[in-house]
UniProtKB/TrEMBL annotation:
<keyword id="KW-0460">Magnesium</keyword>
<feature type="binding site">
    <location>
        <position position="322"/>
    </location>
    <ligand>
        <name>5-aminolevulinate 2</name>
    </ligand>
</feature>
<feature type="binding site">
    <location>
        <position position="126"/>
    </location>
    <ligand>
        <name>Zn(2+)</name>
    </ligand>
</feature>
<dbReference type="GO" id="GO:0004655">
    <property type="term" value="F:porphobilinogen synthase activity"/>
</dbReference>
<dbReference type="GO" id="GO:0005829">
    <property type="term" value="C:cytosol"/>
</dbReference>
<comment type="similarity">
    <text>Belongs to the ALAD family.</text>
</comment>
<feature type="binding site">
    <location>
        <position position="225"/>
    </location>
    <ligand>
        <name>5-aminolevulinate 1</name>
    </ligand>
</feature>
<dbReference type="InterPro" id="IPR013785">
    <property type="entry name" value="Aldolase_TIM"/>
</dbReference>
<keyword id="KW-0456">Lyase</keyword>
<feature type="binding site">
    <location>
        <position position="241"/>
    </location>
    <ligand>
        <name>Mg(2+)</name>
    </ligand>
</feature>
<comment type="subunit">
    <text>Homooctamer.</text>
</comment>
<feature type="binding site">
    <location>
        <position position="213"/>
    </location>
    <ligand>
        <name>5-aminolevulinate 1</name>
    </ligand>
</feature>
<keyword id="KW-0350">Heme biosynthesis</keyword>
<feature type="binding site">
    <location>
        <position position="134"/>
    </location>
    <ligand>
        <name>Zn(2+)</name>
    </ligand>
</feature>
<comment type="pathway">
    <text>Porphyrin-containing compound metabolism; protoporphyrin-IX biosynthesis; coproporphyrinogen-III from 5-aminolevulinate: step 1/4.</text>
</comment>
<keyword id="KW-0627">Porphyrin biosynthesis</keyword>
<feature type="active site" description="Schiff-base intermediate with substrate">
    <location>
        <position position="256"/>
    </location>
</feature>
Length: 338
């Protein structure tokens, strides 16, 4: 192999045109899924204090944000339901009520935009339970535990309700064992074999979820979620979790969070190269950029592009990110920091 001075790698960095020509990674609006919070019981979009620029939308106005996103070229959305405390109970039963905010929002989007928007829905009961956990607590041997199998029944019904309303993909996020299998069987049994599953296959018990829990009203009322979400110290465990979900019928895998787990994204993509891989650029990652930019400590556009490009470079095919509309707008304006 030739060496300096014959080989000069800087020749391939000399101008922007050259850099664009040989770039290994390109970020486009087609890579992005925009998370949307749909709240029951409000009449106007409600700012989320911990997530500057993000809102909870009333069902009646969720089509406004979808319309704005479509105009910018963002066509994929994941919906999260936010409900008042009086609708919450021990088992999260309102999660599968067709009158809930997510089924109604899906129907409104389909009514106004037809098949164009790609609709994913989060399938988890934490925002619908009185205790804020992703599963149903039970007392066993003097300890309060999350009962895996009874939770599967609830999330399966939730997934079917979303499919009936018109969802393209359901996305189980509670890290219950067997969740993909249970949902796949329920969807197929009810005639929704065409509805896909994007599994939160690798979801860590992370400190980066704080702003989301404020947005969705889903913070646990006791304990934490470390008994079912993954230990941040583990990477190889992600292969086992992904393998199980693939065997159970997942169509798309996901790693969450993204930025602190780029090594895991790479590991999962290399282990399952034939499966689309999503990564969730979560609320804490988003809010840190916004807070630092507000202080003038970082260039928001540059840092956002660098982060999302790094996530894609690590192996993600899809990125769930609250930056989606900003990025789409900046791209349309011709901004390219590289």
């Amino acid at each position: 192999m030739p060496r300096f001075p014959e080989l000069r790698p800087r020749r391939l960095r000399l101008t922007k045109a050259i850099r664009d020509l040989v770039a290994e990674t390109a970020l486009t609006v087609n890579d992005l899924i925009y998370p949307v919070f749909v709240r029951e019981g409000i009449n106007e979009p409600e700012p989320i204090a911990a997530m500057p620029g993000q809102y909870r939308y009333p069902v009646e106005k969720v089509t406004d944000i979808v319309s704005s996103a479509l105009e910018l070229g963002v066509k994929a959305f994941i919906l999260f339901g936010v409900v008042p405390d009086e609708k919450k109970d021990h088992t999260g039963s309102y999660a599968y009520d067709p009158r809930g905010p997510v089924p109604r929002a899906i129907k409104a989007i389909r009514r106004d935009f037809g098949e164009e928007p790609l609709i994913f829905t989060d399938v988890c009961i934490c925002g619908y339970t009185s205790h804020g956990h992703c599963g149903i607590p039970v007392e066993k041997r003097g300890r309060k535990l999350i009962d895996n199998d009874s939770t599967l029944e609830v999330i399966s019904r939730m997934a079917v309700t979303h499919a009936e309303a018109g969802a393209d993909f359901v996305a189980p996020s509670g890290m219950m064992d067997g969740m993909v299998k249970a949902i796949r069987e329920a969807l197929d049994r009810e005639g929704f074999s065409e509805v896909g599953i994007m599994s939160y296959a690798v979801k860590y018990a992370s400190g980066f979820y704080g702003p989301f829990r404020e947005a969705a009203g889903s913070a646990p009322r006791f304990g934490d979620r470390r008994s079912y979400q993954m230990d941040p110290r583990n990477a190889m465990e992600a292969i086992k979790e992904s393998m199980l979900d693939v065997e159970e019928g997942a169509d798309i895998l996901m790693v969450k969070p993204a930025l602190a787990y780029l090594d895991v994204i790479r590991l999962v993509k290399e282990s399952f190269p034939h499966y689309p891989l999503a990564a969730y650029n979560v609320s804490g990652e988003y809010s840190m950029v916004k807070a630092a930019a507000e202080k003038g400590w970082v260039d928001e556009k540059l840092v956002t592009f660098e982060i999302l490009t790094a996530i894609k470079r690590a192996g993600a095919d899809l990125i769930l990110t609250y930056h989606a509309l900003d990025v789409a707008r900046w791209l349309r304006e011709g901004y390219n920091p590289f």
